[in-house]
Amino acid sequence: MRAMILAAGRGERMRPLTDITPKPLLRVGNKFLIEYHIEMMVAAGFTEIVINHAYLGEQIERTLGNGQRYGADLYYSPEGTALETGGGIFKALPLLGNTSFVVVNSDIWCDYPFAQLRRPLTGLAHLILVNNPKHNLKGDFHLNKQRVSENGIPRLTFSGIGVYHPDLFKECTPGRFSLVPLLTKAMQAGQVSGEHYQGQWIDVGTPERLRQLEMRIKG
């Protein structure tokens, strides 16, 4: 089972920090943000990891290399112009294999036990949902008995961690597109499971949240 780290975003809300540095290479504590994901993935048994990139992507490849020092094999999916989540995953499918795979956003930080995702996928997707943070109080999806739907109360926030089957993308064509319509269609067909994770999680989307994470790690 392979994993993918989404690292192609421009990081507009992080400017000016991201003017000359891609967001995944921002430092938190004594590591790059993306290194936390790589190390957690490897510890959970995911040693074949795909990383997509666009803006300043050559810095990511040059910095991380082939992954040998992390005990992993890193594969890169360059996009040139960012293809959004759906388009980025679709482009990387040849690197991800024919079975289900794990995807995590590079701009989050969490202590989720990724080894739990090394199990057969029922349906087309499995989403990790978390409590709604202050910047997303309305939430994204409803979870009822491990089944995720677009509508319903209460609503939880999508963590940026998911497991997907290649068939979720079988009707897609190359280009820039969102993952959300694909998930919504799969939800309507009852093909999306989920779980509510209540451990540590933060969306590192702004300089303020980056500072909060720095304090949390040091603490």
Main attributes of the structure:
single chain; 219 residues; alpha/beta; Spore Coat Polysaccharide Biosynthesis Protein SpsA, Chain A; 9-stranded mixed beta sheet; 5 helices
Give a brief rundown of this model.
The protein has 219 residues and is an alpha/beta fold.
- The 3D shape can be described as globular
Biggest sheet character: 9 strands, mixed
Mean pLDDT score, rounded?
94
Structural class: alpha/beta
Query: What's the CATH architecture name?
Result: Alpha-Beta Complex
Q: Please, could you describe this protein's structure?
A:
The structure is a single chain. It is built from 5 helices and 13 strands. It has 219 residues and is an alpha/beta fold. Strands 1, 4, 5, 6, 8, 9, 10, 11 and 12 form a 9-stranded mixed beta sheet that branches. It has a two-stranded antiparallel sheet with strand order 2-3. A two-stranded antiparallel ribbon has the order 7-13. It is globular, with a radius of gyration of 16 Å. The termini are far apart. InterPro entries: GlmU-like, MurU, NTP_transferase_dom, Nucleotide-diphossugar_trans.
List the helices and strands and how they pair.
Blueprint: E1 3-6, E2 27-28, E3 31-32, H1 33-43, E4 48-53, H2 57-64, E5 73-78, H3 84-96, E6 101-105, E7 108-110, E8 125-130, E9 141-144, E10 147-149, E11 155-164, H4 180-188, E12 192-196, E13 201-203, H5 207-218
Parallel strand pairs: 1-4, 1-6, 4-5, 8-12
Antiparallel strand pairs: 2-3, 6-11, 7-13, 8-11, 9-10, 9-11
Keywords: Nucleotidyltransferase, Transferase
InterPro entries: GlmU-like (IPR050065), MurU (IPR054790), NTP_transferase_dom (IPR005835), Nucleotide-diphossugar_trans (IPR029044)
Domain Nucleotidyl transferase: 3-117
